[in-house]
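Severity: low
Component: inverse-folding endpoint
Summary: output formatting inconsistent between runs
Steps to reproduce: submit the following structure tokens with default settings.
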């Protein structure tokens, strides 16, 4: 059982942490300001003032099978939306879906054998143990930067849920460091590593680099007859059997400001969602948005090289989700009307459905960085389609 660290109530340990973090930052090639995760702010950060419910949620979710466990992610999204009052009721309902226990250790992951353990689903508990040790030995921003760069090529892990869970854990830690939140970061990274899966890439021999809004027009769609059913994870494997996809792996310009590139990616995928969504592909298309939006939460803690690497692979995963989900059609234009943030939040919370909550929060987060109404329209559309629990 985790206990809250006393970093907020003891000045001397806090000063020591800041000094140590600054030292580690220099060693990692990061700015000291970037390393001070406990002082970081993000969209909706005011909601964290009364966020003890987040730790309560993590305690309640302890021991659940990690695969497809959206509980911690949705709980953190509720914190960001300013609805901490809804966290415990949501978790109480959500955890009833799980009957399988947390997996037992299989074979220990170490600093010597971690590469051979990538993508081995049997070792998810071993990966969690490994990252828990890493987080005891180094400050969490150091661990996050190191492993984000290493794991970036496998960003497709569990339909990008490894990244998304890591991103929610990072934002939670940036507000308050506790043992439970550190453990949740270890869970996110272990999910990413155990389900690690690379997508096909080809060098960009033409040298063409496009903005995401133009690049997405060149993404070839996997023929419907060749698409795989079942989970999104299984669906993504069809991309590995679809040779034309690799040609678009490096056509997005990612050398600019990462924050701006992320906005371009999320805007392109939110637009693609609205143009292509039908009852059968909603979950696939919305993950292209939540995946690329999740990059934003990691960005303050990444070195420049890790940030550019993550943005590149964020495009690759988003494009792959689009390739297996889009139908190449254009839905009717959405009528312009006022969409209020509070209304979207109320509707998302009322669904008690994890995708509705996470997608709404991601769209509102991106809207706060890029005031394009496409995000609000996408959130509203999804809330009309996703059934309440």
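Observed output (run 2 of 3):
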């Amino acid at each position: 059982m985790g206990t809250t660290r006393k970093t907020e109530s003891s000045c001397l340990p806090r000063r020591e942490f800041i000094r140590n973090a600054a030292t580690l930052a220099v060693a990692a090639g990061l700015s000291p300001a970037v390393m001070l995760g406990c002082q970081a702010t993000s969209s909706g950060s005011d909601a964290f003032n009364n966020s003890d419910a987040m730790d309560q949620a993590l305690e309640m979710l302890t021991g659940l099978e990690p695969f497809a466990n959206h509980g911690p992610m949705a709980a953190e999204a509720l914190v960001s939306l300013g609805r901490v009052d809804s966290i415990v009721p949501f978790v109480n309902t959500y955890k009833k879906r799980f009957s399988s226990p947390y997996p037992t250790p299989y074979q220990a992951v170490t600093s010597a054998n971690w590469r051979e353990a990538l993508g081995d689903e049997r070792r998810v508990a071993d990966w969690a143990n490994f990252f828990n040790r890493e987080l005891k030995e180094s400050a969490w921003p150091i661990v996050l930067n190191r492993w984000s760069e290493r794991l970036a090529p496998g960003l497709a892990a569990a339909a990008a849920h490894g990244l998304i869970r890591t991103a929610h854990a990072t934002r939670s830690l940036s507000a308050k460091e506790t043992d439970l939140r550190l453990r949740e970061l270890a869970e996110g990274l272990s999910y990413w590593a155990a389900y690690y899966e690379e997508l096909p890439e080809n060098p960009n021999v033409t040298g063409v680099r496009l903005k995401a809004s133009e690049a997405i027009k060149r993404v070839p769609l996997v023929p419907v007859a060749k698409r795989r059913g079942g989970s999104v994870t299984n669906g993504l494997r069809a991309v590995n059997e679809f040779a034309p996809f690799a040609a678009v792996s490096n056509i997005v310009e990612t050398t600019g400001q990462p924050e701006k590139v992320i906005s371009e990616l999320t805007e392109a995928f939110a637009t693609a969602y609205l143009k292509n969504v039908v009852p059968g592909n909603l979950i696939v298309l919305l993950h292209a948005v939540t995946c690329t939006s999740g990059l934003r939460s990691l960005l303050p803690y990444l070195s420049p090289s890790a940030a550019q690497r993550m943005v590149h692979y964020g495009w690759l995963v988003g494009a792959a989700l689009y390739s297996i989900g889009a139908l190449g059609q254009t839905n009717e234009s959405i009528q312009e009307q006022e969409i209020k943030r509070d209304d979207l939040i109320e509707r998302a919370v009322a669904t008690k459905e994890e995708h509705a909550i996470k997608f709404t929060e991601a769209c509102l987060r991106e809207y706060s960085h890029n005031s394009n109404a496409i995000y609000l329209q996408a959130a509203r559309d999804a809330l009309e389609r996703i059934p309440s629990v």
